[in-house]
Specification:
This protein is α/β, with parallel strands linked by helices and about 700 residues long. Among the domains are: about 170 residues, P-loop containing nucleotide triphosphate hydrolases (Rossmann fold); about 180 residues, 3-Layer(aba) Sandwich (Rossmann fold); about 130 residues, no CATH class. The protein contains 27 helices and 21 strands. The strands form four sheets. Strands 4-3-5-2-6-7-1-8 form an eight-stranded mixed β-sheet, with helices on both faces. It has a six-stranded parallel β-sheet with strand order 9-16-13-10-12-11, sandwiched between helices. α16 crosses α17. The longest helix is centred in the last third of the chain and has 21 residues. The protein starts with a helix and ends with a helix. Bound molecules: adenosine-5'-diphosphate and magnesium ion. Magnesium ion (MG) binds next to α3. It is an enzyme of class 3 (hydrolase).
Length: about 700
Amino acid sequence: MAALPILLFEDKIMETVEKNSVVVIIGETGSGKSTQLSQILHRRGYTRSGAIAITQPRRVAAVSVSRRVAYEVGVQLGEEVGYAIRFEDRTSDKTCIKYLTDGVLLRESLSNPELDQYSVIILDEAHERSLNTDILLGLMKRLVKLRSSNLKVLITSATLDGVKVSKFFSGCPVVNVPGTLFPVEMLYSSERPKSYFDASFRTALDIHSREPPGDILIFMTGQDDIDKMVSKLEEKIQNLDEGSCMDALVLPLHGTLPPELQVRVFSPAPPDCRRIIVSTNIAETSLTVDGVVYVIDTGYVKQRQYNPSTGMYSLDVVQISRVQADQRAGRAGRTRPGKCYRLYPSIVYHEELLDATVPEIQRSSLAGTVLYLKSLNLPDIDILTFDFLDAPSRESLADALMQLYVIDAIDAAGMITHVGRTMAELPLEPSLSRTLIEADELGCLSQALTVAAVLSAEIALRPIQRNAKDSKSKEQPLQLPDGSRWGDHIQLLQIYESWDRADYDSDWCINHNLQVRSMKFSKDVRKQLSQIMQKISKGPVDVQSSLRHRKGEHDYRSLRKALCKGYGNQLAERMIHHNGFRTLGYRSQLVQVHPSSALETNEDGRLSDYVVYHELISTSRPFMRNVCAVDMAWVMPIMKKLEKMDVYKLSGGLEAAITKPVEHEAHQQANKEINSSGTGDSVERKIQAARERYLARKGKK
Ligand code: ADP
Ligand code: MG
């Protein structure tokens, strides 16, 4: 095999790294950035003074790339080469090449702000613009000044946004590694297909029956569609006339695929067999699949967006950006000339697609990030003036501050509290970490740990759709506990407790139609969380979760109270005259309990008057997902807090930023458009009022 482009540029890269603390490296996907840079640095002695950290925005990439590198270096995974992702650490004292998610590196910097165990930090896949990588970019800027003599920072990207990043790092050098891409012929559809699923299916079959050998890569938007496509293609291909075309192997590829199934994508096709890989956008730049000659680009991607004015998430299928379309096409020309079938007209590509994807920081809830930055406690870091590559909107920063205030993580003056500091130590979203702390006070920590673990291993309790042909028995799955009417959190707890009583038996999971792997993962997560809580808790912590001998309250009062505290203003009140709930606090709107919820009416046929929810999701209409019934008495203190809240004060010493002239007007505008579906006016008004008060005061001085 020809040497990877990165290896051909080894001397140039090393010369630049030697002379500079920050270097941007731009190279096509598949050029060897993720797998080779770390090995080069290792060979050149950079691991003598510390380990090399390579961040990945995606968990699956951290695992897959480290496995590959361990293989290339010829060591056991977890020894010299290892990985660390949330709730899973496969490193040892020997590890000197460590792949980790950007989130894990952020957490490491909490306990060790100088990150002095590392001699090199590589922020890989910077073009993905993940929220955590963006924050790390800001932190690195500060860190290279502190550790100028013994730290190298490399930022790698597959697309040409190097100039912007270089500017951000006061003009650091950019090394371009030209790829050896073969020409890719573009084939556009004359119009948008009615169903992108059907169009992809037809196109794939068409290529398979007419085109010469070469693998096909189809970009779909999500796991459900991928699974559907895989079985539809398999069925069709089996039924093709024997000898009419070569054999085909259809493979799914997505982030939640078990490792043993991912591996198949990296092994070459059997002789006389074409591979058809059906993937999410993970194959766009994160994972390189060799052998692809035909790409089918549906033009869509599933994107999670947060709207700070409504507190609502939506998981939307949106158009990809032009950069993404180019990346997808590029996958076809890695080994020889290829073809890219764009299932949209060329005018869409040229005129409709955005130039680049909106960075995650501008479409995420920032409560966790703001809490994290506040807990860093660095005198020269001020959240609202934090040096972002692209700043988030003031609205989403204000939203984060308000959420943190309601759950006592910051005080009215915007200072981080003792509770807030403790929360930051837990690898959980703020609502769940707050719940654990409250549960510890109320004596129901063990239950809360279970709920937090199961919710964090989110996929855990989604029942598997069993095909008739797969299921060995014709029996119906056994009934799961029902949450005793209190809702989904209690149901999750009861399910886990039943499994515990069954001695964590795998058959129990199978009989109840639950994924064994996911259940085991939640058990592991629970153990890790309890180990962290052991350091924090006032009493002994039930690490092994031996639930059998403890008798619980039958109405789960303490746990529900702790959840109410943790969720803060993720709170809704039942509307007497409407068929639904109204969310409370500063973002009032009508919502419904998700139909899949375990929440039930009481003896009088009435739903609880108040619920807390884990998430607001906007699909066909706004739904609350994972709800828990709570008492009015617990709601009142939260309402009081919300009434007295003043965003201006919350921003505390940070008012300068809220009132600072907006530097990123264009991005603010873009962000506005994304978020314009809700009622953010009141927040905006408050900020505006704060700004005016501030300016007035300044004028008086
Ligand atoms: P980049 O990060 O620049 O996109 P990578 O370092 O991920 O590139 O990949 C470089 C090459 O290494 C790929 O072209 C592929 O041939 C090979 N490769 C990467 N990961 C694997 C893997 N898990 N299994 C087999 N080959 C791999
Ligand atoms: Mg890579």
